[in-house]
């Protein structure tokens, strides 16, 4: 056995992370622990008892900043897991005098309580153990140890994580992004109409019967996107330029809502690209935008109060019943040379119906619809089946 193969057997598979993500985690832990320690020192000066910060917060920081999408790293897991574990540890320490038995019981009870309360957090085991073996300083705190330093440290570290992820463009708390075009009907979302069903996955997870450090919804999304990319690998190369509509009707951001709506009705379009004076795509206005964002007065669209408030909070210019007040921006686009298989993935994952096709300078080249991609997909499949047929030999 070679040295390399031995390492492959021992070491876990390395996640495929970008350099940005590799840098974010240590910087986040640096900021989070510094904030927690500083807050602890200030708390001591205000009369709260020592210690200022406890060691299990280091483990919590690993989860909060290195794997923020993990179910183990969510706010309730951090606050509830650490606090309930501290409560279990202090309770066991008060009732069991033997340190070995107390340590084992504290960690065991902490796991049971966290599991029952759906706040499993690995550092909670260390918190429970600290309550038993932390020495006189911890023992003298009694149940006060739960409030300080455990709950106090957990809240400060959590606050640091919330601010850090918001400032650096991260998503925390983790949430599964729903399809933006889910219609609230009994029909499944586009991604759920391919391959396996949600019930299939639930049955497999039930048979697997082990805790997975990944959100169930994330797991399903990963598997469905894998199916889509498998299609892309098998598909023959047809690019968007060969099937896109080239005679495109676009509108300017300052086009009135009434004029844009009349254009959509006249041409029976579902969407209009929005371009600036250099023909660069700056957004898209769709039927859905017209349905939900304006209000209709005497058959004419007007910006509704809710949309006005959203625009004001976003720092946009004052609404004046023009396209820029309701358009979707930024907009998902594709390039002329983009394979249609990639466009199909974008349609399915984003719940989109139309996408502008743009050149390198973001100038409008055409527009691609779901029906365009469907026709190309069917033609591609037909071509693949024809090439697989055995050649006929005519005597």
Describe this structure in words.
The chain has helices at residues 3-10, 19-45, 56-66, 75-95, 99-116, 123-133, 136-141, 144-167, 198-208, 216-234, 257-267, 287-292, 305-313, 340-350, 370-388; strands at 271-275, 281-286, 294-297, 300-303, 354-358, 364-369. The model is unreliable at 179-183 and 391-395 (pLDDT under 50). It is mostly helical and 395 residues long. It has three domains: 17-167, no CATH class; 190-234, no CATH class; 240-383, CBS-domain (Roll), CATH 3.10.580.10. Helix 2 runs antiparallel to helix 3 (56-66) and helix 10 packs antiparallel against helix 14. It has a two-stranded antiparallel sheet. It has a two-stranded antiparallel ribbon with strand order 3-4.
The CA-CA distance between the termini, in Å, is: 58 Å
Number of helices: 15
Strand arrangement within the widest β-sheet reads 1-2
Oligomer: single chain
Q: Count up the domains.
A: 3
Decide which structural class fits the backbone.
mainly alpha
Calculate the mean pLDDT score and round it.
85
Approximate shape: elongated
The main pleated sheet reads as: 2 strands, antiparallel
Query: Strand-residue fraction?
Result: 5-15%
Helix fraction? 40-55%
Q: From N to C, what is the helix and strand string?
A: HHHHHHHHHHHEEHEEHHEEH
- The tally of beta strands, per DSSP, is 6
Task: Report the radius of gyration as a whole number of Å.
Answer: 28 Å
* Low-confidence residue ranges: 179-183, 391-395
